[in-house]
Amino acid sequence: MERDAILLAVGLNEKDIFNLTKNEALTTKFLRTITEVNIPLENKSSEFNYSCGPLILKLIQSIPDNLADNRLIIAKYIAQGKLKTGVQVEEAIKYAKKIGTTPLPIQDFEVECGVGADVNEEKVTELVNGQISSNKLSYYTIGKANVGKLVGTLRNEIKLLKFADGNIIKQVVEKAFQALSEELKDTPVEEAPKKVEKVAVVKTATTTEKVATQPQKKTYNFDARFLETAVNPPELLEQHKNQTGGKIMTRFPPEPNGFLHIGHAKAMNLSFGYAMSEGGCTYLRYDDTNPEKEEKIYFDSIREMMEWMGFKPFKITYTSDYMDQMYDFAVQLIKEGKAYVDFSSKKEIHDQRENKIESKYRNTTPEENLKRFEQMKMGIYDEGAAVLRVKIDMSSDNYNMRDFVAYRIKYVAHPHQGNKWCIYPTYDFSHCIVDSLENITHSLCTLEFENRRDSYYWLLATLKLYRPHVYEFSRLNITTALLSKRKVLKLVKEKIIRSWDDPRVLTLAGLRRRGYTPEGIKSFCDDIGVTRVENLIPIERLEQSLRTDLDERVNRVFAVLEPLKVVLTNYDANKVEHVEAKNHPKLAERGSRQLPLSRVLYIESSDFREVDSEDYYGLAPNKSVGLRYAPCNIHCEKVIKDENGKIVELHCTADFDKKEKPKTYIHWLSQSAPGVDPMKAEVRLYEKLFTCDDLDEVGDEWLNYINPNSEIIKPNAFVDPYFQDAKNRAVYEKYQFERVGFFVVDQDTTNDQLVFNRSVTLKVDNKFKSK
Ligand code: ATP
Ligand code: MG
User: What sequence ranges are listed for the domain Glutamyl/glutaminyl-tRNA synthetase class Ib catalytic (predicted)?
Assistant: First the structure.
């Protein structure tokens, strides 16, 4: 076939062909790809998509040659009509770039690009209704303000929707919103109970604390994929009930290889929250079977942050506490011919499992396996030389059922067990056994474990152990934020952030330092709800929850971040008067404080402009502004500059008659006596740490998306005399700096140096607002 005939046959139009053939190299590459995908051009086959040309062209223009193997796989998917739309191909490209040169993991790849995902009207309805029902009130509030925004929010939150037709999404959301309005029409949106707990406000020294009163009961739905192996025989159920007294038992099982983050808060809120609402118990279980990554400081900080969140475990346990029992179970499996020692290498085992090939060690006799396992335990083999594998089903469609590894050798001191063991069980082996031994009724975990249900129940059924109910829910992902311990560790090591508790990362320690409260975090977790739909929550929603939480909780004070000196030329040089400022404009019971006012005061440099304009309400030459709480307005008479032309001082007159009504009232701080400036402070302004919304999508390139302005330091700020009182400067005390934002006292504060972190601005910053 001639070149142009081939190009036409795969759906390029004349204009495409004209443009393409101007680039000889690209044309050659395109034609080669068309040959390689084996699309029969002469005798057309219904198994191919003959309009695939434009998508294949898009693909080869976007994926570099070093990824040619994966590029070809994607091209085949396009030619075979399995990737049909531009969005799917874009997702495929993103995924391939993320995976790099390693072979595409086909199953994940297909999920990511929506292969076979027929997101028709029915499916869209199911997804939308499912998400809305996770928190009806919140979605109703969004939709009531603007239905278009509700469409956008849901599109953002439900990943699969990107493969659906935009018009269908719009129609379905509008219909769902109508139904929701009907259902909630009598619920007043503002006053509706948002939180699980009813809160009462009580006052402490400086910050107001919200204290839980009667907890309200929430409904939970833990339906998950049914498996016959999950059904408990009556005698086991009986025994379990005798041991628990019929109580609900959950567990929170962090691996002590890093600090807890907001995703863990979601998991804790669910496991502790559910057990608490049922009068049950929750274990904190350190899942500590990877000694090389685990450290004491992680154990300690997990406990500290869990306690800070207000979650009280019924018991603290360690997976490694059960090492003797697990060893006995392994021996039992070997004796029953259901586990074997495998000397294949890690890669060989991976390939065997990938390609459903049995290991040559699979049929070793139990006697021999017992001996070898004992030798593994005695330290006869090198690390990596031998593993114990369970013998399930190498032909299973479920990867995890293909003889997962149960034990591996590690010659590393264990932070809890010392040098007692050199073989350690894997997650797949230990998790279900310990859940069962602890009589967990509801084992709640994230969705990446869904495909492990089968092996979880296989092992318990084989060992004739009690089987907990497993329910998987979606992981929390937040735009512009990282929730991976490994990646946060990298940021710390590369000194991109100050430490694990840097106010820019969403570790719980970081959130505390940023000014979040446990109640605020829990209320955010309740607000986003628990679903099985993968979603990405806009960080603005978290920030909004912080504003809402802090608004009533904290007092308001003055701070001038970039001071500009103002001399009141008509004010007596020795006079100091005191003006009363309210600590909270709406809550009179918070009282007030006295602010000195004298001849010299400081205003925010951004509240002055040398060149005035109509839409500008601040101070300018020959213009007036009001001073919040003060008995006078100020009128700018003269601008004083240094030799470089920088404005250093303003000369103003104080107008006590307030003849002119100013358009705006600004914040200010004045010298408390001639020559005595206000208190100084360092103020750290925080912005999003990354400039890209979905960090998962950029794969290994994530470090290229650091926001260089994520921390801006104002070293010479002046703050309110309120901070002269030491208790008001205590670490984690929170404030609103009037007109500026919410701030919290940082732990770097010393007797000589006050340090504040900005928790959040007063309004959403459009510059960073996600689309
Ligand atoms: P990371 O990927 O951040 O290292 P992890 O999944 O390895 O997290 P674990 O310490 O094993 O973290 O997790 C403890 C519990 O918290 C698990 O039940 C896990 O499913 C849950 N969890 C972890 N991350 C999230 C998240 N982003 N959203 C919800 N739950 C989470
Ligand atoms: Mg983990």
Answer: 247-549
